[in-house]
Fold each of these.
Amino acid sequence: MKHSIIAAIFGGACLAVFSGCSTQTSSTTNIPAPADRKPAQPVEVAKPVSDEPKVILPPSPGISQRPAVREFIAEMSRKHGFSSAELTRAFDEAGTVPAILDAMAKPYEAKPWHAYRKLFLTEKRINGGRDFMATHAAALAQAKSRYGVAPEMVTAIIGIESAYGFKPGKYRVIDSLSTLAFDYPRRSSFFRSELEQFLLLCREEGMDYLQPLGSYAGAMGMPQFMPSSYRKLAADGDGDGKRDIWSNAADAIASVANYFARNGWHSGEPIAVPARISGDGYREVVSTKNPKATQTLGELAHLGVTPAESVSGGHKAGLVQLAGETGPEYWVTFHNFSTIMRYNHSPLYAMAATELVREWTGAGHR
């Protein structure tokens, strides 16, 4: 998908951007472990069903002689000491994937809320999250103790990003990032930077440039971290000295929790609750894109906005408007909602994560 996840790329592709103990898994067998690492044994919480190829390869590899790629190789050699011959060999095997450019033109977050919600608030996703939390309870508990982020929040992110590890992406990361760095002018500088970060992390982690798989936007593993987020925020959850977010659930869990902690998550505070609206005063503060938690609940009440559920504490709040199936849908949002939006810049994404948490807890307080 997309934060990094975190990774929000624009209007919503993954950022991530993105545990606890010796529990080693919940992975997909479609994704190879990084080079020179022994894959963890998978614990299945759901069975993926797909007729699509396990890996989507470029139709015509071999981009090393393109002027922009040669310039990039020279820059990596000059700036970071990479072997030009080594990178040339890697880009001889890399290529442009047209399907990636098509996907960038129609991100999930372009959908209205009522359609987006149906993608993630499914019985399978909800029950899969319960199974994930039961399977990895110790790792999630340790992450909560270390980072102050509740199991439900971490699980919601991994559930949205990769269906609990079963859909972490079928594109080679080098192909995704090369396609977008050299054939997607609108965001070429961003993806060129991420390609630089990817080559650096491969060198640091001892991974083959051609091996890691991810999303069409280059986001990787269970939490769908972009390479820059991986280098800064990926965490070793089980103390084995590695940060394997592809096939080690403990590392993926710790990485998501670390991302949230480093981006200002407030443990125990609310995320969002349904709002009651009266009059027209709410128009002064309502947002459809980026609600800001800058008003007291008293100030919102003066504008005709009140939480439809009890909220304790003097938290600052904002108001988001979403396109519901029968008309506008309003939610009072708090600081932690904004933190989720740092993982992915879309309020639809943040609301989907919030709703999953509420399914598992019965409240917006985690």
Amino acid sequence: MALHRPGARAGRMSASPPAGSPRPRQASPREIACWVLYDWANSAWSTISITLLIYYLREQVLPGDAGRRAWGWGIGSSYLCAALLSPVLGALADARAAKRGWLAVTALSGALCAACLGLVPPAMPWLIVGLFVCASLMFELSFSFYNGFLPELADETQLNRLSAAGFAAGYLGGGLALALAILLVQLAPRLQLDPRTALRTCLVFMGLWWAGFTLPAVIVLRDRSPPREANLPWYRAAAAAVGEVARTLRHIRRYSMLSLFLLGFLIYNEGIQTVLSQASNFAKDALQMTAGELGLLVLAIQFASLPGALAVGKLADRLGQKPALMLCLTIWAMLLIAGFFVTRKAEFWVLGMVVSLVMGGTQSVSRAIMGVMTPPARTAEFFGFFSLSSKATSMVGPVVYVEVSQWQGPHAAILSLLAFVLAGWAIAARVDVRRGRAQAQSASL
């Protein structure tokens, strides 16, 4: 990820590092490359799970309503567990300066579960569901520790591009992994593989990709914050971590801008994530798109999202992080309004390409804002709250979409998500990033 240069534009962050920062030296290109590579690694799960895995689960392992419910409840339960565990595990990782260890545990165990999805025979459906839930949970938990390294590797003059480059690498890696998996399925007859075996092979490949490209981050990255409770037994450290989280919540008023941002992020991210998770349902119900057509669109969006994430990172350099976020959310609002009028597949493709330009950018600039307003010594803990904010209402948007679609149709359902984006936009507009940065530097828990 290219690092952006400091500048003197009004509204930009100061180039000086925060007081008490745990960064005694500048991050090396090797460290930055290995950090970025984890986004490349885990995105194989992101793309293959929502395409080939969901098909395998619903069509071959648990056909009918059982597969649909297993997928929905599995995703929901893993999100809920991740939301509850992320702040506590993040606080524990900070207290013992163990983000690298926790990243290794969560990422590699998730990759192992993902690979086992293809090794376990379909005749053991509930073991497959259990592995799927565990892989999804580990995937979500790993981001608290991964994101926690961001403020340690980049100062305020580098956060935008570093965060954006991570997302860009993720879109490229996820798209490439999905393309290779689809190619294997297409070549299955020539390789004398039956379709089920080809799908299972793709799931093993998904886990191996995730694990293999995680290893550089696990080997190279090092926690830069000194441990506060390194000598405590793990159970006492865990109890202390719970106490730290409770103390953070009691003193959250010291971080009023961060709290306000997390609330806005919770709301607008719910709308965005629901758009992404329900887009295939909209395409099928409103436009009768086939699975093959959707697969091509997903691949196109993945690769187009790479320049989009980088472009928004540069825009944040030029305009400032908050204006870039406000612009992205405005585009999301316009997309949802336009979606209400879409009646042809070509129009849906156009919307998909526009989505690709702001999808990664919205997430990357949100992560950069979070990094700026995070206390340096508690990065994993506070990014645990970031994860909590992104998952706390994870079932609300899909329920709203499904119910509105049931009664009013898919076009009304997609328009209903506009309320999430507008409400989140209104709250995020009140965030003063400079003030939030000052609060992170001056407040001590």
Amino acid sequence: MAARKYKREVYNMGNYGYIRVSTREQNEDRQLLALRELPIPEKNIFMDKQSGKDFDRPQYRRLVRRLKQDDLLYVKSIDRLGRNYKDILEQWRILTKNKGVDIVVLDMPLLDTRRGKDLMGTFLSDIVLQVLSFVAENERANIRQRQAEGIAAAKVRGVRFGRPPLPLPDNFNEICKAWRAKRLTLKQAAMACEMPVGTFYAKAIRLEKTAE
């Protein structure tokens, strides 16, 4: 009886968990398994499938509205909370200082606000948080740079991105000659090829350069 009462009290505490996966990953299993090993009621686990570039996420905002003083929030790692350095620090301040919530980052035991409530403990936690937040944002910037470099390298190799161009209509060469001979206006030529004027003009010029 006493054991059941203790378990019920633990699970009735204000323990919460937050999960974030990007829409590209679509895989929350690792975070979910970690949180389910903790005394967190299932209904208190919130998840967003959204980029971490800012905190404008529906489930995160709903979570923050639910949190109250002395509640405890678990996240698997600091980059699951967010990826923007300044925003992470601001949210951390709002949750811990304004709302009086404790936060535990499972992958980084030093980021556990229940410990070290003295000045030195708080100082160390703040330093670790700032370093990790910077690393998370820096990694995001590196990913963008690697993507841009990859795209640039692919373009050099002749890889084309975007939709493949539509084939030219069968009468395109004929219409181009008529337009160059001034038998058709630019607008008439574009209409005959069922193209916007700008598209017809660009393709006609490109065709001429290719033929040179």
Amino acid sequence: MSISTKGSVFGQTGNIEGTKRRLFFGDYDLQVDTETGSTTATLSGRWAWEEMISQETMLGYYVGGEMGSSAINGAFEGEQTNLSLIAGGYVVHALTDTVFADGFVSVSAGRNTLQMADEVLSLEGEYVTQTLTAGGSLTGVYDYGRYELHPELAFSFGTTRIGTISFEGEAYGLTESGLSLDARTITTSTLTLRPEVIYALEDESLTASRSHLSFAPRLLCERTKSTTTTNRCGRGAEIGVNSSSEDGLSSASFRVMMDRVGASNRTSYEAKLQFRF
């Protein structure tokens, strides 16, 4: 099981007509694996520019960076650090008043350092990764008064080239600097069908209610390719509750996500507090 805490800051400016805006996103994420004791901390920032090129279509692009550090526990103990530069673009298009299509693509390059050791062997190495991510979704928004239905079909693809990792190893007082590991390229693809129902808890109208309950069953298939190829399909569900203050400046939400994909079970929990200044 893993425990995660996240936080974010957000700011935006735009023109009077509302057709252009500039945004800033800042995020931090801390994850703890309760089984191994490993922790991962990530800090990222992005600047984005968006423009309505028509009444139905919005284009956006962004640049940013990310820093990460992981403390590894288990059979090997050590530390991994990462510094990455990221750029990407996205588009959102209204096909009808209730159906929307969106797509995105991003590229990143990162420099990583890795230190691992057990009782006998100590390893230190550096490597560079290049990542390409792309995807899209088709989403509907259907209003039925007290509840809304949001069916979604989404696809994502990601490939990361790690290549050869060079290590310097030490064991029994001897040092070897010519060690290497060919990590090659890892590719993942995911297809998800996810109809979500959002229900108003306080009012007959969903837009007027300050508290909502959501439920989303889903079917998903995953394909992972590295030295071997693995195809897995499964099903799962999400259930969540959201409540906002009367002035709309703060909100709280809690969500549980459960999936069974192939032979593995996945469960995660998300609690979120938001404050606007």
